[in-house]
C-alpha cells in the first residue's frame, strides 16, 4: 500500500462525480431554457395570428359595409400575457381566447 493512494483515489472519484453533476445540471438548464423559448415562440405566433385575424375581420367588415358588431372587433388589451409569465395556466387561457375569436370569425362569415 502506497501512502496517500487512498486520498488520490478519493479525489479522482470526487472530481468525476462533480463533473458528472455539473454536466447533468447544465443539460437540465438547457432543456428548461429551450422549453421557455418554445413557449414564448408559440405565444408570439398566437398573438400574430390573433392580430392578423382581427385585421382580416375589420377589412371584411369594412368591405361589406356592415355596421360594427357590439365590440366583437374591439382592439382591447392583448391577451398574450402568457409571454411575460411562464405559467401553463396563463398559456391555456390565451389559447381559449383564440378559440373564442375563431368562433366569432366563423359566425361573422355565415352572415
TL;DR of this structure?
The protein is an all-alpha fold. It contains two helices and no strands.
What does this structure look like?
This protein is an all-alpha fold and 111 residues long. It has one domain. It is built from two helices and no strands. It starts with a helix and ends with a helix.
What is the molecular shape? rod-shaped
Strand content: under 5%
Percent of residues in helical segments? over 70%
What is the alpha-carbon Rg in Å? 27 Å
Q: What number is the mean pLDDT?
A: 76
Give the biggest beta sheet: none
Count helical runs: 2
Uncertain stretches? 79-93
Helix/strand order, N-terminal first: HH
Counted up, domains total 1
What's the total number of strands?
Answer: 0
What is the first-to-last residue Cα distance?
93 Å
Question: What structural class do you assign from the helix and strand content?
Answer: mainly alpha
Strand-helix topology:
Blueprint: H1 5-64, H2 88-109
Helix pairs in contact: 1-2
Task: Describe the structure using short key phrases.
single chain; 111 residues; mainly alpha; 2 helices; 0% strand; rod-shaped
Amino acid at each position: 500500500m502506497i501512502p496517500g493512494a487512498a486520498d488520490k483515489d478519493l479525489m479522482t472519484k470526487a472530481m468525476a462525480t462533480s463533473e458528472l453533476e455539473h454536466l447533468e445540471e447544465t443539460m437540465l438548464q438547457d432543456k428548461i431554457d429551450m422549453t421557455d423559448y418554445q413557449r414564448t415562440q408559440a405565444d408570439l405566433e398566437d398573438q400574430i395570428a390573433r392580430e392578423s385575424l382581427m385585421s382580416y375581420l375589420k377589412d371584411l367588415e369594412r368591405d361589406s359595409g356592415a355596421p360594427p358588431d357590439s365590440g366583437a372587433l374591439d382592439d382591447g388589451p392583448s391577451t398574450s400575457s402568457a409571454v411575460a409569465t411562464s405559467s401553463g395556466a396563463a398559456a391555456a387561457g390565451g389559447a381559449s381566447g383564440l378559440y373564442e375569436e375563431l368562433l366569432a370569425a366563423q359566425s361573422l362569415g355565415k352572415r
